[in-house]
Amino acid sequence: AHVKLYDLHPPIDDFRAEALTGLMKQQKTISPKFLYDKSGAELFDAICTLDEYYLTRTEMAILQTYAHDIADLISDSVLIEFGSGSSQKIRILLDAIPRLQTYIALDISKQHLQESCLNLAEAYPLLETIAVCTDYTQPIDFPNIPSIDKKRKVGFFPGSSIGNLEPEAAIEFLKQTGQLLGPRGGLLIGVDLKKDRTILEPAYDDRQGISAAFALNLLTRMNRELGTDFNVDAFTYRAFYNPVGRIEMYIVSLIDQVVHLDDVEIPFWKGETLRTEYSYKYSLEEFRDLARAAGLQPNQVWTDPEQLFSVHYLSV
Ligand code: AVJ
Fold first, then answer.
1. Is the pTM of this model over 0.90?
2. Which end of the chain, N or C, is less packed with Cβ atoms under 10 Å?
3. Each residue of 106-116: pLDDT tens digit?
4. What is the pLDDT of residue 147?
5. Which of 160, 189, 192 has most ligand 1 atoms within 8 Å of CB, for mutation?
Protein backbone atom coordinates (compact mmCIF):
# COMPACT_ATOMS: atom_id res chain seq x y z
CA ALA A 1 0.00 0.00 0.00
CA HIS A 2 1.13 3.51 -0.77
CA VAL A 3 0.16 6.84 0.79
CA LYS A 4 1.42 10.19 -0.39
CA LEU A 5 2.09 12.50 2.54
CA TYR A 6 2.13 16.28 2.36
CA ASP A 7 3.45 17.74 5.60
CA LEU A 8 2.36 21.38 5.87
CA HIS A 9 4.12 21.59 9.26
CA PRO A 10 1.24 22.90 11.36
CA PRO A 11 2.74 25.18 14.03
CA ILE A 12 2.88 23.30 17.33
CA ASP A 13 0.60 24.88 19.92
CA ASP A 14 2.19 26.74 22.74
CA PHE A 15 0.34 24.79 25.44
CA ARG A 16 2.15 26.65 28.25
CA ALA A 17 1.31 30.13 26.92
CA GLU A 18 -2.30 29.22 26.06
CA ALA A 19 -2.88 27.52 29.42
CA LEU A 20 -1.46 30.50 31.30
CA THR A 21 -3.66 32.97 29.40
CA GLY A 22 -6.74 30.79 29.91
CA LEU A 23 -6.13 30.26 33.62
CA MET A 24 -5.72 34.00 34.26
CA LYS A 25 -9.13 34.85 32.79
CA GLN A 26 -12.15 35.72 34.91
CA GLN A 27 -13.88 32.59 33.56
CA LYS A 28 -10.98 30.15 33.47
CA THR A 29 -10.92 28.24 30.21
CA ILE A 30 -8.67 25.98 28.14
CA SER A 31 -9.26 25.16 24.49
CA PRO A 32 -10.78 21.71 23.88
CA LYS A 33 -7.98 20.92 21.42
CA PHE A 34 -5.74 20.27 24.46
CA LEU A 35 -8.02 17.45 25.66
CA TYR A 36 -6.57 15.08 23.07
CA ASP A 37 -3.20 13.84 24.29
CA LYS A 38 -2.69 10.07 24.10
CA SER A 39 -4.88 9.26 27.14
CA GLY A 40 -7.39 11.91 26.10
CA ALA A 41 -7.76 10.43 22.64
CA GLU A 42 -8.25 6.97 24.18
CA LEU A 43 -10.84 8.29 26.62
CA PHE A 44 -12.66 10.03 23.78
CA ASP A 45 -12.75 6.76 21.82
CA ALA A 46 -14.25 5.15 24.95
CA ILE A 47 -16.89 7.91 25.15
CA CYS A 48 -17.90 7.16 21.55
CA THR A 49 -18.87 3.60 22.54
CA LEU A 50 -20.91 4.56 25.65
CA ASP A 51 -24.64 3.78 25.76
CA GLU A 52 -25.34 7.37 26.76
CA TYR A 53 -23.25 8.86 23.92
CA TYR A 54 -25.72 8.33 21.09
CA LEU A 55 -23.85 10.58 18.62
CA THR A 56 -21.30 8.21 17.06
CA ARG A 57 -23.52 5.17 16.52
CA THR A 58 -26.41 7.30 15.30
CA GLU A 59 -24.28 9.14 12.75
CA MET A 60 -22.82 5.83 11.51
CA ALA A 61 -26.34 4.41 11.15
CA ILE A 62 -27.46 7.46 9.14
CA LEU A 63 -24.44 7.15 6.84
CA GLN A 64 -25.14 3.42 6.40
CA THR A 65 -28.84 3.88 5.75
CA TYR A 66 -28.39 6.64 3.18
CA ALA A 67 -25.01 5.58 1.77
CA HIS A 68 -26.43 5.18 -1.73
CA ASP A 69 -28.14 8.57 -1.78
CA ILE A 70 -24.92 10.11 -0.51
CA ALA A 71 -22.88 8.14 -3.03
CA ASP A 72 -24.97 9.59 -5.88
CA LEU A 73 -24.03 13.10 -4.74
CA ILE A 74 -20.32 12.58 -4.31
CA SER A 75 -19.31 9.70 -6.57
CA ASP A 76 -17.33 11.68 -9.13
CA SER A 77 -15.50 13.81 -6.59
CA VAL A 78 -12.35 13.89 -4.55
CA LEU A 79 -13.30 13.27 -0.91
CA ILE A 80 -11.52 15.43 1.65
CA GLU A 81 -11.96 14.58 5.33
CA PHE A 82 -11.35 17.29 7.96
CA GLY A 83 -9.79 15.77 11.08
CA SER A 84 -9.65 12.22 9.80
CA GLY A 85 -8.66 10.61 13.13
CA SER A 86 -8.66 6.88 12.57
CA SER A 87 -10.51 7.14 9.22
CA GLN A 88 -13.29 4.73 10.22
CA LYS A 89 -16.48 6.60 9.25
CA ILE A 90 -15.15 7.23 5.76
CA ARG A 91 -15.18 3.48 5.14
CA ILE A 92 -18.98 3.51 5.14
CA LEU A 93 -18.86 5.97 2.24
CA LEU A 94 -16.02 4.19 0.43
CA ASP A 95 -17.92 0.89 0.59
CA ALA A 96 -20.86 2.58 -1.11
CA ILE A 97 -18.69 4.23 -3.79
CA PRO A 98 -16.27 1.56 -4.98
CA ARG A 99 -15.27 3.69 -7.98
CA LEU A 100 -14.15 6.63 -5.87
CA GLN A 101 -10.65 7.57 -7.06
CA THR A 102 -9.14 9.87 -4.49
CA TYR A 103 -9.42 10.36 -0.73
CA ILE A 104 -7.54 13.12 1.08
CA ALA A 105 -7.22 12.96 4.87
CA LEU A 106 -6.42 16.14 6.79
CA ASP A 107 -5.20 15.75 10.35
CA ILE A 108 -2.94 17.62 12.73
CA SER A 109 -1.35 14.49 14.20
CA LYS A 110 1.20 13.24 11.67
CA GLN A 111 1.74 9.85 13.25
CA HIS A 112 -1.95 9.05 13.67
CA LEU A 113 -2.56 10.32 10.13
CA GLN A 114 0.11 8.13 8.55
CA GLU A 115 -0.96 5.00 10.42
CA SER A 116 -4.67 5.41 9.65
CA CYS A 117 -4.03 6.20 5.99
CA LEU A 118 -1.79 3.16 5.58
CA ASN A 119 -4.49 0.94 7.10
CA LEU A 120 -7.05 2.47 4.79
CA ALA A 121 -4.85 2.12 1.70
CA GLU A 122 -4.38 -1.57 2.50
CA ALA A 123 -8.12 -2.09 2.76
CA TYR A 124 -8.87 -0.04 -0.40
CA PRO A 125 -5.96 -0.76 -2.78
CA LEU A 126 -7.63 0.93 -5.77
CA LEU A 127 -8.11 4.18 -3.91
CA GLU A 128 -5.55 6.95 -4.22
CA THR A 129 -5.01 7.89 -0.56
CA ILE A 130 -3.37 11.21 0.22
CA ALA A 131 -2.47 12.40 3.72
CA VAL A 132 -2.08 16.09 4.50
CA CYS A 133 -0.68 16.97 7.91
CA THR A 134 -2.21 20.35 8.76
CA ASP A 135 -4.37 22.21 11.28
CA TYR A 136 -7.66 22.42 9.39
CA THR A 137 -8.99 25.03 11.84
CA GLN A 138 -6.47 27.50 10.41
CA PRO A 139 -6.59 28.80 6.83
CA ILE A 140 -4.91 26.09 4.76
CA ASP A 141 -2.47 26.77 1.96
CA PHE A 142 -3.44 23.61 0.12
CA PRO A 143 -0.67 21.76 -1.73
CA ASN A 144 -0.79 21.47 -5.50
CA ILE A 145 -1.96 17.93 -6.10
CA PRO A 146 -2.04 17.26 -9.87
CA SER A 147 -4.55 14.38 -9.75
CA ILE A 148 -7.23 16.54 -8.06
CA ASP A 149 -6.61 19.73 -9.98
CA LYS A 150 -9.80 20.10 -11.98
CA LYS A 151 -11.96 17.66 -10.06
CA ARG A 152 -14.99 18.45 -7.94
CA LYS A 153 -14.13 18.41 -4.23
CA VAL A 154 -16.42 17.23 -1.45
CA GLY A 155 -15.53 17.72 2.20
CA PHE A 156 -16.49 15.28 4.97
CA PHE A 157 -16.71 16.67 8.52
CA PRO A 158 -18.43 14.09 10.74
CA GLY A 159 -19.00 13.75 14.49
CA SER A 160 -20.58 17.15 15.16
CA SER A 161 -17.06 18.49 15.67
CA ILE A 162 -18.41 21.83 14.46
CA GLY A 163 -20.30 21.93 17.78
CA ASN A 164 -17.11 22.84 19.64
CA LEU A 165 -17.08 26.19 17.81
CA GLU A 166 -19.22 29.14 18.81
CA PRO A 167 -21.66 29.99 16.00
CA GLU A 168 -19.57 32.98 14.79
CA ALA A 169 -16.47 30.79 14.55
CA ALA A 170 -18.50 27.99 12.95
CA ILE A 171 -19.58 30.41 10.20
CA GLU A 172 -15.95 31.43 9.65
CA PHE A 173 -14.92 27.77 9.45
CA LEU A 174 -17.65 27.02 6.91
CA LYS A 175 -16.70 30.07 4.79
CA GLN A 176 -13.07 29.02 4.77
CA THR A 177 -13.96 25.42 3.96
CA GLY A 178 -16.16 26.56 1.08
CA GLN A 179 -13.21 28.46 -0.35
CA LEU A 180 -10.93 25.46 -0.04
CA LEU A 181 -13.45 23.17 -1.75
CA GLY A 182 -14.01 25.64 -4.56
CA PRO A 183 -16.92 26.17 -6.98
CA ARG A 184 -19.06 23.05 -7.55
CA GLY A 185 -17.73 21.75 -4.23
CA GLY A 186 -19.83 20.15 -1.50
CA LEU A 187 -19.65 19.50 2.22
CA LEU A 188 -21.09 16.49 4.05
CA ILE A 189 -21.29 17.45 7.70
CA GLY A 190 -22.58 15.71 10.84
CA VAL A 191 -24.46 17.93 13.30
CA ASP A 192 -25.99 16.96 16.64
CA LEU A 193 -29.63 17.99 17.01
CA LYS A 194 -31.33 19.86 19.84
CA LYS A 195 -33.30 17.50 22.04
CA ASP A 196 -34.53 16.96 25.59
CA ARG A 197 -31.89 17.60 28.23
CA THR A 198 -32.62 14.20 29.78
CA ILE A 199 -30.96 12.68 26.70
CA LEU A 200 -28.32 15.37 26.18
CA GLU A 201 -26.92 15.62 29.68
CA PRO A 202 -26.13 11.94 30.31
CA ALA A 203 -24.28 11.87 26.94
CA TYR A 204 -21.83 14.34 28.46
CA ASP A 205 -21.86 13.02 32.05
CA ASP A 206 -22.13 9.24 31.88
CA ARG A 207 -22.65 6.84 34.78
CA GLN A 208 -19.21 5.22 34.37
CA GLY A 209 -17.49 8.59 34.67
CA ILE A 210 -15.62 8.39 31.37
CA SER A 211 -16.70 11.91 30.35
CA ALA A 212 -15.47 13.17 33.73
CA ALA A 213 -12.15 11.33 33.33
CA PHE A 214 -11.80 12.80 29.81
CA ALA A 215 -12.09 16.38 31.13
CA LEU A 216 -10.05 15.82 34.32
CA ASN A 217 -7.25 14.27 32.23
CA LEU A 218 -6.51 17.86 31.19
CA LEU A 219 -5.23 18.51 34.74
CA THR A 220 -3.04 15.39 34.66
CA ARG A 221 -1.70 16.49 31.29
CA MET A 222 -0.86 19.97 32.59
CA ASN A 223 0.92 18.46 35.61
CA ARG A 224 2.99 16.24 33.33
CA GLU A 225 3.73 18.64 30.48
CA LEU A 226 3.70 22.04 32.19
CA GLY A 227 4.76 21.06 35.72
CA THR A 228 1.60 22.41 37.38
CA ASP A 229 0.62 20.98 40.79
CA PHE A 230 -3.11 20.31 40.32
CA ASN A 231 -4.45 17.89 42.94
CA VAL A 232 -6.86 16.09 40.60
CA ASP A 233 -8.82 14.69 43.57
CA ALA A 234 -9.68 18.23 44.65
CA PHE A 235 -11.65 18.83 41.44
CA THR A 236 -14.80 17.36 39.97
CA TYR A 237 -16.60 17.52 36.63
CA ARG A 238 -19.95 19.06 35.65
CA ALA A 239 -21.83 19.19 32.35
CA PHE A 240 -25.22 20.79 31.72
CA TYR A 241 -27.41 21.95 28.87
CA ASN A 242 -27.65 25.72 28.56
CA PRO A 243 -30.94 26.49 26.76
CA VAL A 244 -29.13 28.99 24.52
CA GLY A 245 -28.38 25.73 22.68
CA ARG A 246 -25.22 24.18 24.00
CA ILE A 247 -23.81 21.68 26.45
CA GLU A 248 -21.26 23.37 28.71
CA MET A 249 -18.51 21.31 30.33
CA TYR A 250 -16.53 22.39 33.38
CA ILE A 251 -13.92 21.23 35.85
CA VAL A 252 -15.04 22.42 39.31
CA SER A 253 -12.83 23.09 42.33
CA LEU A 254 -14.04 21.21 45.44
CA ILE A 255 -12.15 23.48 47.85
CA ASP A 256 -10.41 26.86 48.08
CA GLN A 257 -6.94 26.15 46.72
CA VAL A 258 -3.94 27.61 44.89
CA VAL A 259 -2.28 25.94 41.90
CA HIS A 260 1.14 26.91 40.50
CA LEU A 261 2.22 27.26 36.89
CA ASP A 262 5.90 28.25 36.81
CA ASP A 263 6.06 31.19 39.23
CA VAL A 264 2.41 32.16 38.79
CA GLU A 265 -0.13 31.45 41.55
CA ILE A 266 -3.57 30.49 40.26
CA PRO A 267 -6.24 30.65 42.95
CA PHE A 268 -9.45 28.61 42.80
CA TRP A 269 -12.27 29.22 45.22
CA LYS A 270 -14.58 26.40 46.28
CA GLY A 271 -17.02 25.92 43.39
CA GLU A 272 -14.97 27.92 40.87
CA THR A 273 -14.98 26.47 37.36
CA LEU A 274 -12.55 25.91 34.52
CA ARG A 275 -14.45 25.56 31.23
CA THR A 276 -13.21 22.77 28.99
CA GLU A 277 -15.80 22.73 26.18
CA TYR A 278 -18.96 24.00 24.61
CA SER A 279 -20.87 21.57 22.42
CA TYR A 280 -23.47 23.43 20.34
CA LYS A 281 -26.65 21.72 19.17
CA TYR A 282 -28.68 22.89 16.17
CA SER A 283 -32.18 22.25 14.91
CA LEU A 284 -32.28 21.38 11.20
CA GLU A 285 -33.39 24.90 10.28
CA GLU A 286 -30.87 26.57 12.57
CA PHE A 287 -28.01 24.73 10.93
CA ARG A 288 -29.31 25.44 7.43
CA ASP A 289 -29.39 29.15 8.37
CA LEU A 290 -25.83 28.91 9.71
CA ALA A 291 -24.70 27.39 6.40
CA ARG A 292 -26.42 30.17 4.44
CA ALA A 293 -24.72 32.77 6.64
CA ALA A 294 -21.43 31.22 5.51
CA GLY A 295 -22.44 31.51 1.85
CA LEU A 296 -23.14 27.79 1.45
CA GLN A 297 -26.34 26.32 0.07
CA PRO A 298 -28.07 23.74 2.27
CA ASN A 299 -29.36 20.78 0.24
CA GLN A 300 -30.25 17.31 1.43
CA VAL A 301 -30.35 16.45 5.12
CA TRP A 302 -30.66 12.99 6.62
CA THR A 303 -31.62 12.06 10.19
CA ASP A 304 -32.31 8.92 12.24
CA PRO A 305 -35.90 7.90 13.11
CA GLU A 306 -35.57 9.40 16.63
CA GLN A 307 -34.25 12.73 15.27
CA LEU A 308 -31.17 12.56 17.45
CA PHE A 309 -28.56 13.49 14.84
CA SER A 310 -28.35 15.01 11.37
CA VAL A 311 -26.10 14.76 8.33
CA HIS A 312 -26.30 17.77 6.02
CA TYR A 313 -25.15 18.12 2.44
CA LEU A 314 -24.16 21.71 1.67
CA SER A 315 -22.99 22.98 -1.68
CA VAL A 316 -20.52 25.76 -2.29
C1 AVJ B 1 -15.68 15.90 19.52
C2 AVJ B 1 -16.68 18.00 19.95
C3 AVJ B 1 -17.93 16.30 18.82
O4 AVJ B 1 -19.08 17.68 21.62
O5 AVJ B 1 -19.82 15.65 21.49
C6 AVJ B 1 -17.78 14.48 23.89
C7 AVJ B 1 -16.57 16.20 22.37
N8 AVJ B 1 -16.68 16.06 24.87
N9 AVJ B 1 -17.87 14.33 25.23
C10 AVJ B 1 -18.89 16.48 21.47
C11 AVJ B 1 -17.01 15.59 23.66
C12 AVJ B 1 -17.20 15.28 25.81
C13 AVJ B 1 -17.48 15.98 21.18
N14 AVJ B 1 -16.94 16.55 19.90
1. yes
2. N
3. 998 898 899 99
4. 82
5. 160
Average pLDDT over residues 222-251: 98
| Per-residue pLDDT tens over the stretch 154-201 | 999 999 999 999 999 999 999 999 999 999 999 999 999 999 999 999
Neighbours of 119 (CB within 10 A): 17
Closest C-alpha residue for ligand 1 atom 13: 161
Q: Phi/psi of residue 31, each to 5°?
A: -60, 135
Is the CB–ligand 1 distance for residue 163 below 6 Å?
Answer: yes
Report yes or no: 167 and 280 within 8 Å, Cβ to Cβ: yes
Q: For residue 67, is pLDDT > 80?
A: yes
CA distances from 304 to 53, 60, 310 (A): 15, 10, 7
Bridge partners of 4? Answer: 130
Cα–Cα distance, 189 to 301 (Å, whole number)? 9
User: What's the whole-number average pLDDT of the chain?
Assistant: 95
Q: Is the beta carbon of 47 within 6 A of some atom in ligand 1?
A: yes
Q: Are 232 and 219 in contact (CB under 8 A)?
A: yes
